[in-house]
């Protein structure tokens, strides 16, 4: 079947929510232009920005590095580098680290690796064991997410970064919207924007250039570009509520193409009202570590103190 865009190439992908059928060349350029449009629409970068890309080694983050590298080539004053956080998950992170290292080297971008062990004194595997011993409620992903977010911010700041780009896709965003609702915390939606506000000098602005691209399209992008990515799933992933939400949303999307976009658009529309409700929360510095936080003690410190590792 011929590509509906160039009318010449053989279609390799049928886009269910738009009716397009695209050849590999038109598909790849459609993804790149979608990311360019997102960056422009949300004013994500300045031409001279020093941009850190959080590269876990998975398909989304390696593809993001690939796409941003192409886009930023047009801005000679911009700088791009990669950060990988090694959480310390046995049998999982090693392959990812190799992938991130190899792709950064291929593009010739600086690659920084920081570990939970180095930053907090414990690997995630050790944290999980302590959590289990103490019978605490939270799952591995809760600790992992909070500690990784903090780690990325600290390393990005130490490197004099202007923006920290993460590879959250449309799927991640739709899942996050649903998770905030399922956790009974819709106000959090005010804070999960495609570009975070510049609210504190110690908090690097985070941008999500892939947030309008479905995960399966990022996977196809990686495949067609010949990008190698980590194949082993995280051993803790199946325990998370996010995993159940992912399965449910994939089923909904299969039966009703476009629902993930609709969920993310709904959150975008609700956000101004939620932001107005969240106003006045201002950030201060954590009494324990000095990092920005909404309360007296930041979430990473609370978690580590509860485990008695601080
Ligand atoms: Fe961390 Fe959970 Fe992701 Fe594994 S699945 S890397 S534990 S957030
Ligand atoms: Zn084409
Ligand atoms: Zn703290």
Bound molecules: iron/sulfur cluster, zinc ion
What is the count of β-strands? 9
Helical percent range? Answer: 40-55%
CATH class equals: Alpha Beta
Written description of the protein model:
With 310 residues, the protein is α/β, with parallel strands linked by helices. The chain has a single domain, classed as 3-Layer(aba) Sandwich (Rossmann fold). It contains eleven helices and nine strands. The longest helix has 20 residues, at 259-278. Residues 286, 288-289, 291, 297-298, 300-301 line the site of one zinc ion.
Question: Features of this protein?
Answer:
single chain, 310 residues, alpha/beta, Rossmann fold, five-stranded parallel sheet, 48% helix, globular, binds iron/sulfur cluster, binds zinc ion
Give a quick precis of the structure.
The protein has about 300 residues and is an alpha/beta fold. The protein contains eleven helices and nine strands. It has one domain: HUPs (Rossmann fold).
